[in-house]
Amino acid sequence: MSHYAHTHRIDKRAKRAAKRGAKLLDKHYPGWHRQINDAALRMINYQDCILGQLTGDYERGVCALKRKGALVGPMQAAVVRHGFYSTAETQRYWHDLESAWTNEINQRRQQEGNRDY
Fold it and tell me: Are the beta carbons of 61 and 52 closer than 8 angstroms?
């Protein structure tokens, strides 16, 4: 987890969004957390975000989830709701989103009993 995450409370909206997104990935990409390099996770970057690391590019990941029926309705609202994107213009929220996703990844790794990724 980044130093930033240790210096403040993570925004509740970011936590909820990452939790929804993680549950969605659990269903459609079982074991997804093993493919993420959390040290390189940058939600604001199309290749280093969760979907970018899983599929090679954020847009490709959104399209794949849409084809699977996992994302429905207006796309911008769906990706924001699941923590894959933010319309917030503050760096803090993007950092909160990264921290929330890192927490989701670590929870799954701890459940497996393996933290060496």
Answer: yes
How sure is the predictor about 9, in pLDDT bands with cuts at 50, 70 and 90?
Answer: confident
In which domain, by residue range, is 22 found? Answer: 3-108
Distance of alpha carbon 32 from alpha carbon 88, whole angstroms: 26
**Nearest by Cα to 43 from 111, 104, 3, 102:** 102
Number of domains present in the structure of the chain: 1
CA dihedral 4, 50, 23, 1 (to 10 degrees): -20
- Joined together, the tokens standing for residue 117 give 């990724």
The answer to whether position 114 is within a domain reads no
Percentage of the chain with pLDDT > 70?
90
Q: Kindly indicate the confidence band of residue 113, based on its pLDDT and cuts at 50, 70 and 90.
A: confident
Q: Report how far residue 34's alpha carbon sits from residue 26's, in angstroms, rounded to the nearest whole number.
A: 11
